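Example 4.3 (complexes with small molecules)
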Amino acid sequence: MNRRTLLQALLPLPLAGIAARALANEPAAAIAPLRKTRAQWRELVSPAAFRILFDEGTEPAGSSALNAEKRPGTYLCAACFLPLFDAADKYESGTGWPSFTRPIEGRLGTKTDFKLIWPRTEYHCIRCGGHQGHVFDDGPPPTGQRWCNNGLALRFVPQGQALPELRT
Ligand SMILES: [Zn+2]
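Answer. The structure with zinc ion bound is encoded below.
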């Protein structure tokens, strides 16, 4: 083995290791944005869900069946099906909206984190940009945060059922 082939044999391993660690620290970087027109989304979601997701609407308090949902499982973005919340982080906030102490890491974007023009406290699905809700700092431990979500912007999949493929 000459010097050149020895270098080629040795280099890829440590470089691959560094790349893998960087990805693990930045899960949002691995999620490619899904871009669709408003007309395309209008064909895929209900009119009520469209108003929440793409016109920044808010559903009436107490109107979502997900308020009473207590089973373990996963909450997906109702538009693109990206998993956003684990049911283990859901709690009863008494506000009339499904509430969580934290999202799945890297799945929601705010102005602070991702340089969007939306107000700081509003959050959106990092993949499709669909509006989900607002985050407040009056939540319970362990985070002290209250991620207050519109039920119409979510789809619940109970534990043990297969998650749908991401919409493309
Ligand atoms: Zn989405």
